[in-house]
Amino acid sequence: MNFFLQGLTMGIAYDAPIGLANLFVINAALTQTKRKSFLTALIIIIFDISLAFACFFGIGAIMKKFEWLQLVILLVGSLIVIYMGINLLRSQTTDISGEATPEMTVIKTITSAFVVIWFNPQAIIDGSMMLGAFQVTLPAYSYPIFITGVGIASILWFFILNAVVTKFKDKFNAKILRIINLICGAIIILYGGKLLLNFFTLLMH
Fold first, then answer.
1. What is this structure's pTM?
2. Which residue has the higher pLDDT, 88 or 6?
3. CA 128, CA 72: separation in Å to the nearest integer?
4. Any stretches that span the bilayer, and where are they (predicted)?
5. What does the angle CA 81 – CA 87 – CA 92 come to, to the nearest 5 degrees?
6. Using DSSP, how many helices (H) and how many strands (E) does the chain show?
7. What is the rounded CA–CA span in Å between residue 174 and residue 16?
8. How far is the CA of 56 from the CAs of 94, 149, 164, 170, in angstroms?
9. I need a surface site. Which of 40, 70, 136, 159 has the fewest CB within 10 A?
10. How many Å is the Cα radius of gyration of the chain?
11. pLDDT tens digit string along 19-67?
12. pLDDT value, residue 37
């Protein structure tokens, strides 16, 4: 039970800081129907847990070993993230009801969520340092218990975040929602810009 609680608290610390995944879930909860926003949260959870598993078992070490892989992920990821942010800035919201929002297909949601989670090498490396370093302190038999706690934390965090935002989204009118979209879009573009800067920095070394 102790290892499970350690994994649970580590998982919350891993997911809680405001990042692309949280912004993605918040925006879906504000602009999509309850069913679609729930699906978005579920897809984010699946990719988030898969990344946590990969970090725990050492993908960060692989990225550090192969610099070309870092470069590819940085370049492609930064461009796609910037594109997503620009689309959010350009989106026009006249009504916050689900019927008034643009249709977001399951395929588009899956690909966008994949980019948000997996095309952020900084998150992969940070997650590897956080979870991978913790792995060293654990006995081998506790790995499944610990990583299960991390996975449960991801499920709880994103479902609760989605539920809270969905519950209170009716308090937002179209103007406020537009401002939120602009803020989220700007932050996402800044994330993408930071990734692109990291790409050029790594390329010049």
1. 0.76
2. 6
3. 19
4. 12-31, 38-62, 68-86, 106-125, 145-164, 176-197
5. 150
6. 10, 0
7. 27
8. 43, 12, 29, 39
9. 136
10. 18
11. 788 888 988 888 888 899 999 999 999 999 999 998 888 776 676 677 7
12. 92
